[in-house]
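User: My collaborator sent over this chain with a note saying "see what the structure looks like." That's all I know about it. Can you take a look?
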Amino acid sequence: MNADSRGIRNHNSESDGRLGGRSELTPIYTAASMAKLTTMREAIADLVPDGSSVAMGLQLEQMIPFAAGHEIVRQKKRELRLIGPISDILFDQLIGAGCVKDVVAAWVGNVMMGSAYNFRRATEEENPGTPGEKLRVFNMTNFSISLALQAGAMGVPFLPTRTAMGSDVPKGNHFFYQIISPFQPQETLLAVRAIRPDVTIVHVQRADQNGNAHCWGNFGVMPEGVRAAKKVIVCAEEIVSQEVIASDPNRTVVPGFLVSAVVECRYGAHPSPVQGYYKRDDAFFQQYHAETKTAAGFAEWAQRWVFEVADRAAYAEQLGRDRLADLGVKQHSYAAQTDYGY
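Assistant: Without extra context I'll predict from the sequence alone. Here is the result:
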């Protein structure tokens, strides 16, 4: 079977100026094969209604779906519950834009700089998403978030744990409940309530048009978040052929049957890193910290980086080619070849 008959064509990754490692195969899809392949605008409009619980930033400090978050801001979604371990500045942006009702998280801030000013203003003064009220935050730990999502993925109401015992985290927090083990010795434990997000949004290196996605690097709690969710949006640096995904099945972290929509979104995780594609943009985090100390400052920042750019391509153009080139992979580190034959 030749390449054209499979619906793919040869593609030189260097000729189009794109950065990072690339497959030599780029898909050509017909309308019939694009049931899940959609635009970011359509995915957010269709799958993230007001009042949704949304899990994002599940891979800790890498592959945070900033492009999806910015589209949520553009569409002025409201009354959202944000769920995640370490969101970095994405949650801060959604809070500042008035999209958020409450937060279930282990930490919210700017990992590089410390404080995130929208979050602090919302918790200490007034939450833009709930005028006249402060932002409600359900404190979790990274491990208890993982357990809650795992319980959701398993379809059980809770999972027992010792974590957080002896701390203030469970106090006044309905995600924890003290229980007694039914087995000897009948020790005291904490039950962590299951979390089933209405939608989980993840960013990965590559996926096919059915949502089967390859991901490598730090998973964080992404696998649990995907399996616990009612709907899943996969944002990928590139859409590749089914043959590319099938060639390495053990790297398929997100199976397509769990996915509601898949979006091709180059640089969709910037300024966080995507291993094999681009590094963390440290300067961007510093600039964000300096420019969002006031609500007015954040409004100016959002106008420039969210509202005045129609999509991620325009965002990348505003970043500039030299900056993107500097973020590209300088020293490749490939995995050893794997033989799946018998």
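A starting point for your reply to your collaborator: The radius of gyration is 21 Å.
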